[in-house]
Write a structure and sequence with these properties.
By secondary structure, the protein is mainly β. 8% of the residues lie in helices and 27% in strands. It has 8 helices and 33 strands. Strand 27 (560-565) and strand 28 (571-575) form a beta hairpin. Helix 1 packs across helix 7. It is globular. The chain starts with 22 loop residues before the first helix and ends in a 12-residue tail after the last strand. Bound molecules: MU-OXO-diiron (FEO) and calcium ion (3 copies). One calcium ion is lined by residues 370, 474, 476, 562-564.
Length: 674
């Protein structure tokens, strides 16, 4: 038994309230805690979903073995799909090669020490590839080109698994017993944790991002350029600035930063995206897990409701960083959590650039931050908020993208309108503006300024009546068609009275993907239509939808998470949580989005035990596919991991970016048998 309760999910963090509170609930709590007025019933917009005759008849899903699997049958893309695989090595479709290209601990700068799990330090980690690689972006070199053989990989390092990283982190708990304990007895963990300052400092340095120059030689072999001036680590201690409506606000100020404009580092960087001007935006997701002692604030404290909504814990945090750094103890520093949960923009082509937390994009458990240029030139940033019953967002810049003047675009993300999505049961939808002073977003309702609106974007979403979704993950516009895809990973807490057309399954174990068409193809607009693209699961079960393909024609898939597109606009889908619900490791799948093969899901790649697949991205001509295997072996311990991939022997598992190529190293990946 792992010492952590993973709740069937790698994040160990789905501890936010997850209650699907209505605005009445939230506002009532907030206002009574602030000693203000009582809320009269019916005086505010209700956020509860209405259930009016779902167009899709769906039942609860179960985790059962899978009936059909189209192994060996070539689909529209021309490769032979693989089967569900639960083995100890990754598997890729025939005709392709793969390699663990960048592993946790690999040197990414000249002079960096080699990986040695027995001799880890923050100083070494700051020159090495970080832990738990997630989102990847390929940024061509030179900047502005569409180079296929030379670029920068920008990679998020979401979190650390100290129980898998450090030999001495866990010790056996003498109080633990395998004998059954009473149902109402507190759980006794099998292991005790032993964080030291050296371990915590190494963990801080293993978080953040890496920027790594990579190059392909004429033989088709890729390598890291170790002495590149671009190579860089951003960590949980790298200085970052705050811009936009929350910059300088009193709630952003701490003892260490009385300006509210200078933050120490970034945490839990999960998904992200790139801008049309060649910068990147990295999303901070489950930041609540680093903070402790919520109860010390007292339930009437102004910060309490905000922190509780994100699931900041009472008592010690699991990581116990608060024992070494006061800023992680909300009893000491109640505002520090407000400085996380943002999208961070930085310029990977300028290694001296200071990352900026762009608060206009709102604060939540961020995913995505993918961009699209609207017909009139505004830049639109789509982002999910990954928690059960949370919302999908987009941000539209006030000013227009200038393709001829890169510098003129560099602060575009500070001014604009943040919207949250409402999905109507009739297949239409609205983008509801989160603008201070409009509608319910007034001082009387607890929003004193736009800073409050963006800091408490979730409360603002409640207030305007946004639709509570099944864990919104990646959210991305198809560059070929302009249609937008919202990935809902799963939600095992949705009950029958919470079902709506956009979240049509109770106990949604397998997740789904919604396709959005912005009205008049205007991504800056406020209305859209939507339809279900995929209801994932075992296709043999009646509650799934695979574009109308029959059960034996498609690959089983569960818990879709990250997406990307190839040059033809086919949708590539990576998963996080498959083994909980289907008998196989997480994987990478592809489905055409248009034409006769629309919705025809085929499995292309399979991961290793304990590891999710994340961050898939192609180079421009699709001759290289980079994809992360994150947290391989999670669920085990340093002594007994679930896998030792990729090194084997006595090495710990190493989260790694996998490089996939066709056998002919310059041919297109996934487009035939290579
Ligand atoms: Fe870090 Fe929501 O995945
Ligand atoms: Ca994610
Ligand atoms: Ca993506
Ligand atoms: Ca995920």
């Amino acid at each position: 038994m792992p010492f952590i309760d993973y709740e069937g999910d790698k994040h160990r963090v789905l501890s936010g309230n997850g209650r699907g509170d209505t605005f009445q609930d939230v506002l009532g709590r907030r206002l009574s805690r602030r000693g203000l007025v009582k809320v009269a019933a019916g005086s505010t917009a209700a956020a509860a979903v209405s259930v009016t005759g779902p167009r899709l008849t769906v039942a609860a899903q179960t985790a059962t073995p899978v009936a059909g699997n189209p192994v060996g049958r070539v689909g529209a893309l021309g490769f032979e799909p693989i089967a569900l695989d639960a083995g100890d090595s990754p598997v890729v479709a025939p005709g392709h090669t793969m390699t663990a290209f960048l592993r946790w601990g690999d040197p990414i700068m000249s002079g960096a020490p080699g990986f040695d799990p027995a001799a880890q330090s923050a100083a070494a980690q700051e020159m090495q590839f970080g832990y738990n690689c997630d989102w990847i972006e390929f940024m061509p070199l030179p900047q502005g080109s569409d180079s296929n053989d030379h670029g920068l990989l920008v990679v998020n390092h979401e979190y650390t698994n100290p129980e898998l990283m450090f030999p001495g982190y866990l010790t056996a708990n003498p109080e633990y017993t395998e004998a059954p304990v009473a149902d109402d007895a507190p759980p006794v963990p099998e292991f005790l944790t032993n964080p030291t300052k050296e371990i915590v400092d190494t963990e801080l340095a293993a978080h953040g991002l890496s920027v790594v120059e990579v190059r392909r030689d004429e033989a088709g072999a890729w390598r890291v350029v170790l002495d590149s001036p671009y190579n860089r680590r951003l960590t949980a201690t790298t200085p970052m600035s705050v811009s936009g409506p929350a910059a300088g606000n009193a709630r952003m100020q701490t003892a260490a930063d009385t300006t509210g404009r200078e933050v120490t580092g970034t945490l839990n960087n999960c998904a992200g995206g790139k801008t049309p001007w060649g910068t990147v935006i990295s999303g901070e997701e489950n930041f609540q897990q680093y903070f402790a002692n919520l109860e010390a604030l007292g339930a009437d404290a102004p910060a309490y409701a905000s922190h509780e909504r994100f699931g900041i814990t009472e008592g010690s945090s699991e990581r116990r960083w608060e024992e070494f750094y006061e800023r992680f103890d909300v009893a000491q520093e109640p505002n520090e959590p407000f400085r996380y949960g943002w999208g961070i923009e930085f310029d990977p082509y300028d290694p001296e650039s200071t990352p900026k937390k762009r608060t206009a994009l709102g604060r939540n458990k961020h995913e995505g931050h993918t961009s699209f240029v609207a017909p009139e030139g505004q830049v639109v940033i789509y982002s999910g908020d990954d928690e059960r019953f949370e919302y999908a967002y987009k941000f539209v810049t006030a000013d227009r993208f200038n393709p001829d003047d890169r510098a003129a675009n560099l602060d575009l993300l500070d001014e604009g309108t943040l919207y949250v999505a409402r999905f109507n049961d009739d297949g239409t939808g609205e983008w509801l503006p989160l603008v201070h002073g409009q509608g319910e977003l007034t001082e009387a309702n607890g929003f004193a300024s736009q800073a409050d609106v963006v800091i408490d974007a979730r409360f603002a979403g409640d207030a305007v009546g946004a639709t509570k979704m099944d864990r919104p993950e990646d959210f991305e516009a198809n560059p070929v068609t302009g249609k937008v895809y919202l990935v809902l990973t799963n939600n095992n807490q949705r009950e029958i009275d919470q079902v709506d057309e956009a979240n049509p399954r109770i106990n949604n174990l397998h997740g789904h993907i919604i396709e959005i068409t912005e009205e008049n193809d205007d991504h800056a607009g406020t209305t859209f239509t939507w339809e279900m693209f995929l209801l994932a699961g075992d296709p043999a079960q009646g509650s799934t939808y695979f574009g109308g393909f029959s059960r034996d024609e498609v690959s089983p898939i569960s818990s879709p998470d990250n997406i990307t597109f190839d040059v033809d606009g086919n949708l590539w889908i990576s998963t996080d949580g498959m083994p909980n619900n289907l008998p196989g490791n997480d994987g990478l799948f592809v489905a055409p989005t248009e034409g006769e093969a629309r919705g025809h899901v085929q499995q292309f790649f399979s991961s290793v035990p304990g590891g999710e697949v994340s961050g898939p991205v192609f180079n421009p001509d699709n001759s290289a596919l980079f994809v992360s295997i994150q947290h391989p072996g999670e669920g085990g311990t340093y002594k007994e991991p679930m896998t030792r991939w990729p090194d084997g022997g006595s090495a710990p598992p190493r989260p790694s970016v996998v490089l996939i190529q066709a056998r002919d190293g310059t041919a297109r990946v996934g487009n035939g048998r290579g």
